[in-house]
Amino acid sequence: QEKFDIGYDIYFSGNSWSVQLAKEFEAEAEKHKDTVEVAYTESELKADKQVSNIEDMITKGVDAIILTPISPTAVIPVLKKAEAKGIKVVLLASSIKSDDYDALVTVDDVDFGKAGAEWLAEKLGGKGKIIALNGISGISASDDRWTGAKEIFDAHPDIEVISVVDAGWDYAKAKVAVSNLLAANPEIDGVWSQGGSMTLGAIDAFEAAQRPLVPMTGEDNNGYLKRWAALEADGFTSVAPSKPTWLGSEALLVAIDLLEGKTVEKNKIYDVPMITADNLGEFKRDDLSDSFWANTRLSDEQVRATFQD
Amino acid sequence: MPRAFPVSGRPKEWRPPMFEGSLRSNLLTSLPALALSALLIILTAYMSPNFLSDSNLTNLSSRLLPIGLVALGEAMVLFAGRIDLSVGAIMSLATAIMALTSASLGWLAIPLALGAGLVCGVVTACGVNFLRINPLVMSLATAAIVKGVTMLLLPSPGGEVDYAFYDMLFGAERLLSAPLIMSLIAFIVIAVVMNWTRLGRSIYAFGSDPRAAFANGISSLKIDLVVFGMSGMLAAAAGIVLSIRILSGDPLIGESYTLDAVSAAILGGVALQGGRGNAIGVFFAALALVLINNTFNLLDIDTSFQNIAKGLIFILALVLFMRGKAEEH
Amino acid sequence: MALPAILTNAKPAAATWRALGLLAILLIVLFVFSGRVSMVQVMDNARQAAPLGLIALGQALILLMGRLDLSVGATAGLANVVLAASFAGNMDNMATALAITVFFGLLVGLANGILVVVLRIPAFLATLATSLVIAGAILVYTGGSPGGSIPAGFRVITEGWLFGILPWSVVIWTACSLILLVFVHYSLKGRKMLLSGANARAAQRNGIAADRMVIFSFVLASFMATLGGILLSSITGMASIGIADTYTVDSIAAAVIGGALFSGGVFLPAGVAAGSLILFFLQSLLYVLSLPPAARFVLQGSIIVIALALSNFKKDR
Amino acid sequence: MASLKPANHSPTLIAVSGLSKSFGRNIVLQDVSFSLGRGEVLALVGENGAGKSTLMNILSGNLSHDAGDIRLKDATYKPSSPADAARNGVAIAHQETAVMPDLTVAENVFFGREPRNALGMIRQRQLHSDFTQLAASLGFDLDGRKLGRHLSAAERQLVEIAGAISAKPDILILDEPTASLSSEAAHSVIRLMEQLKAQGTSIIFISHRMGEIMEAADRVVVLKDGALTLAAARGEFSEDDLIHAMVGRKLENIFPARPARENAPVRFSVRGGTNENLPEIGFAVRRGEVLGIAGLEGQGQKPLADALCGMAPFRSGTIELDGEALKLKSPAAAIAAGIASIPDDRKHDGLALSLPIRLNMSLFAITERAKGGFLPLAYERDFVEGARERFSIRSTDMEQPVGELSGGNQQKVVFARWLAHEPKLLVLYEPTKGVDVQSKSEIYHLVDELSQKGVSVILISSDLMELIGLSDRILALYEGRITGEIARSEFSEEKIMRYAAGLPGKRQAEGMEAAHV
Ligand SMILES: Nc1ncnc2c1ncn2[C@@H]1O[C@H](COP(=O)(O)OP(=O)(O)OP(=O)(O)O)[C@@H](O)[C@H]1O
Ligand SMILES: Nc1ncnc2c1ncn2[C@@H]1O[C@H](COP(=O)(O)OP(=O)(O)OP(=O)(O)O)[C@@H](O)[C@H]1O
Ligand SMILES: [Mg+2]
Ligand SMILES: [Mg+2]
């Protein structure tokens, strides 16, 4: 029997989340190696390169294309072409501004932003001065999460966002930024952060400045979960919304269903999984690397192979 | 009539060039890029049946247009012995302007974006000329400012560019597509201007030795305005094409094009020190850059090795073509 | 009037004073806006600027030779990845980890030097190519997710303060600046570098092995970039990909604000330090004023123009 | 102060009055006034750094002046750029500096005046045939298709001159037009000047060669330290007057009196030295001897100088210094062996123009005294200050960048470099190109002084006066071979030129090695 040819575009491999997303896909593909044959391309977070990659997949004549759209519009024309050739298209972890696709598998980043913000607003009793740590302006995940968070904060008139900073999902940048903000502001009551490493940086900046820790939001990467657990005894509180990397494996399953002619739900948008003080223990893995992300379908062996310490 | 006298006994190291004039000696600089792209075409066509399909060739020319335009502008700056590292930022700015204004202004968005590119080029030219700031640094400064402005205008990718533009530019799937024709026109026009007009000769002369050129009556301000202005406009044109290709604006999309543009110009035989090189060579070098990615994808080369492979090809090309060209003031 | 001979050699150039002046102005502005600039805060910024400072020193050495090194950012990033991997979070590995990291750094410098000198490829392109290869190699080696970590014991070099007032990283940075200052301006080899940098052909003709000086400077610059990468790793405590990419452009900007010339023959470590600090305080100013990230680029571009416009102010025709 | 009487002359074309110019605090021109009539030749004379080039650069729009007034054809003239000057009929031939390396000779000559078709495109063929015509009419032996970067110094100079003439200017300015030319070529340029003058062109030329000035100038203007010290018409001045006005005193002996030294032992010899550019060369120099090497431009002088200093080593042959065989594989090896050399192209091969005088001058002085790799700075300062005084190098202080000095003073810096340690052999290649009489004389006496101390000198020069005045013996170089030898007692310009033109010398090649000692 003919195997299905599938093109998978790795949108980025510059941070551990994007790497793990691709690994989840690869692991699933390995399980179905008798039915699918995958050709990989790599877009390096460049929308135009992604367009070219998809064009080349069409040229090669694949049966299905799985991609994480870097821009909400860039791939529309080329996906139309794919559709015209009867190629199935699955969007993974990010959507586009048209319905020229067959399935979407994701968690909403706006909801992600809201989830952390709601927790923080509640924790502060709807009142206080906070700072926000964003990823990179111009990248939709970062902007969408902030949009969601801002909506919540705007609804709480007594919460004042005193500074919004881009720290590139980066520990070091976040630490520098927060150090500076601490020097400039005698009162900071909470930190809304959209990335685990940035929250780590913020914690270290607070400690370096010998200021008591305040409620902060984080994300589900293992390094952060470990630190959070260690600080719980000192009264540190946090919450970790998650964009699970297992979406990668889910995308392949959906693609196979489509190719086999099964009907699938077009927009599969999962709820944002939340790690809270209550279930922290279930996700935190002291025996695994700091870099790994807790919401995964990878086996421990696979995680160890991907992120060696 | 004074009689002829021997000035040099017998020039030993030098023989007359194969062709006449500096024009021909410039044309020869295109050969390596021509060879490289020919090699890639033959290799890929041999190994992949889809390579020569109409749709793939159309795709290639669509990709050639933006990198070709921006590399062409960069080459003009390099001909004059300057360098422009702001082209990528200008491309992003142009995509932002298109995304924000094409809905309301329609076609007028295009001259607006081109004008913005021109202004950026003029700013760089003025810094280089009046403030005597090294072009590399001045263009980096322009790039930073332009990037900031772009991010103020359009903080994240988005906005919308009308689909009609897309149909117009990329709609047809045939070999002689609009992007290919536009690339050819741009390159031929610039090649003619550079080689057969006084302006072109002045740009080469200025790049060759600015002091000597000044002494021969060239105004450095005029040269700077022309080359940086052109480079800004061509970068903006590339940005317009890109915004149509992605149907939106993106404040970061141009970044990687700066080094691509410089690489294409250099691989195309343009000397960093100025005065030498030809638009034709740049055309083939830009083509080679486009072909490399296509080749990687069509031949299924492992993605993680693509970057190393590209770096090594780059080094190999440098070793083959640039050997002995190290700058020494 | 007449300085002792030993001082004329190191007399701060006009460009150094200009850079220091700009830095002072920036500090005053910062003070005015934030209302509280303490010595500790200044030192804390200096501490974090140290990686850039070291990398920019290396860049300045290359500029001294009339070349440009576009691989310093990649080299620092390489140091970050290699150091974290070979440390593996264990302080016992320190000697080996440092040795391996420095070894790779020197290797990059040697490769650059050979491409530029032996194969005579323009430095701009040769170093661009090596940076591409380094970036690719890091991706292949790490698969996109680098492992390892820097043990807390080692992080003292960026987190510890000497006598509680001087961060160790500032001490290291100052020491490197001084050593290079003395080396370039007081040693025979440094003098030969100056001459080769200003006119390689004349230097060669006058018996200086100018080519060897160029290779040497590339190795030294990569070494400085590696040191910068090590300090950076000590700050971050872990490895991440592309973390030092912006340092390439920033190092050029810092060196040039500090008075380095593309035509070679100039080396002003104090100016370079001022340039690095200016770039860093600019960042602080943005946080304090809570300006959008976009403003950072506008300000940074403007300050480069201002710094250089000042230095060219009085040239007449 | 002498001023020019306009009476017995053709109508005034350009009149300069009260012109001043300074660079920073350095006053370069001070209240200079003179005038020039149509169809006249004016020679501008002065020491290095007197301000000649600056004055001409002002007239040609390369520099602007601070005060004073220039009237051209009775209108105020203040050119804003070289292009502006050209529009006003003023053209300048710089001292070989303005040839654009990546354009061909023809493109250089007609730059900005290329023939074009209706579309504004340059007609390449026409351009080159125009050039062939022009070159023939000027009597220049130049290949129009050659790129500027491949030209020799003399060819560059001719390109400059041809370019300026082809603009058909009213006023032609020639800045040291003959400095790089052999004397025969220089004579032709002088004849060309006479021809242009006859056609009504006014010419201002700068030269350090007294013979040319006496021969060609209708008037002279002498500058000293930026001020006018003499302005006179032909017949009103003598060579001594000029020198007096330039230097401020009489120069007794430009050349040192040198005793014959025929019996000294051989110090340095080359036998059968060959490389790509030298077919075969052999000669020997005695201890303390000054060996002149004469030849027309491009007969192998440069390859010979390069081989001797190790830049382009001999591929085969034997070299001996003080009886020991030697390989001159690199400049470093040559210097280590005690061979010092002064290049002809000081700007590219001799100096780091952006660095201070001190750094340029002191390298060798301090090298051997360095302790543990570090420099003896006090010694360096004393050495540099001493040399500055001794050579009267005109500069603000020892930290002034060498690039700001005039050509002659730059040359002195190159010379001074070798003073700290006497070399065994000193190779001079056009050592006084563009150097004024005063400095020339100083350099000659210095060479003599060194040779008295036993330093052997090889003097490669196109200046016959210099060769005759300074050498103990002269060899003629033709097509990369030694074609003749002339003993001091037989020196004459005519004889040297005969040999240099490749005509058979007194002794033939077989006996050469013995004969040349
Ligand atoms: N751009 C400049 N900046 C500073 N000083 C300058 C500049 N140009 C010339 N000078 C100085 O002006 C003086 C006159 O220089 P100029 O070149 O006119 O001399 P010159 O008479 O042509 O000498 P030479 O015979 O060596 O050619 C010199 O002292 C020189 O150092
Ligand atoms: N960058 C500079 N800064 C200061 N002065 C300069 C600079 N460049 C050139 N000059 C001065 O300008 C004058 C003219 O330069 P140019 O190269 O034409 O020298 P020249 O005097 O005609 O030639 P030569 O040095 O062979 O006598 C020189 O006297 C030199 O001192
Ligand atoms: Mg002069
Ligand atoms: Mg001169």
Question: Would you kindly provide a written description of the structure presented here, covering whatever features stand out?
Answer:
The complex is a heterotetramer of chains A (309), B (329), C (317) and D (517). Chain B has a single domain (28-38, 53-323), classed as ABC transporter involved in vitamin B12 uptake, BtuC. Helix content of chain B is 71%, strand content 0%. Chain B has helices spanning 21-27, 31-47, 54-79, 87-105, 109-129, 135-153, 163-170, 178-196, 198-208, 210-215, 220-246, 255-267, 279-298, 303-322. In chain B, helix 5 (109-129) packs antiparallel against helix 11 (220-246) and helix 12 (255-267) crosses helix 13. The longest helix of chain B is centred in the last third of the chain and has 27 residues, at 220-246. Chain B starts with 20 loop residues before the first helix and ends in a 7-residue tail after the last helix. The relative contact order of chain B is 0.20. Chain C has 317 residues and is mainly alpha-helical. A two-stranded antiparallel ribbon of chain C has the order 1-2. In chain C, strand 1 (161-162) and strand 2 form a beta hairpin. In chain C, helix 2 (14-34) runs parallel beside helix 13 (269-288) and helix 3 packs across helix 13. The mean pLDDT of chain C is 87. In chain D, the strands form 4 sheets. Chain D has a 6-stranded mixed β-sheet with strand order 6-7-8-3-9-10, with helices on both faces. In chain D, strands 16-17-18-13-19-20 form a 6-stranded mixed β-sheet, sandwiched between helices. Chain D is built from 18 helices and 20 strands. Classes of the chains: A alpha/beta (309), B mainly alpha (329), C mainly alpha (317), D alpha/beta (517). Chains B and D meet through helix 1, helix 9 and helix 10 of B and helix 2, helix 3, helix 4, helix 5 and helix 6 of D. One magnesium ion binds next to loops of chain D. One adenosine-5'-triphosphate binds next to loops of chain D.
Q: Give the SSE order of chain A as H and E letters.
A: EHEHEHEEHEHEHEHEHEHEEHH
Helix content bin of chain B: over 70%
- Which ligands are bound? adenosine-5'-triphosphate, magnesium ion
Mean model confidence by pLDDT of chain A: 90
User: What is the number of strand segments of chain B?
Assistant: 0
Residue stretches of chain A low in confidence (pLDDT < 50, at least 5 long) are: none
The level 1 CATH classification of chain B is Mainly Alpha
Q: Give the amount of beta strand of chain B, in percent.
A: under 5%
Transmembrane segments (chain C): 15-37, 49-68, 94-116, 123-141, 161-188, 209-232, 252-282, 294-313
Protein name (chain C): Autoinducer 2 import system permease protein LsrD
Organism (chain C): Pseudohoeflea suaedae
Main location (chain C): membrane
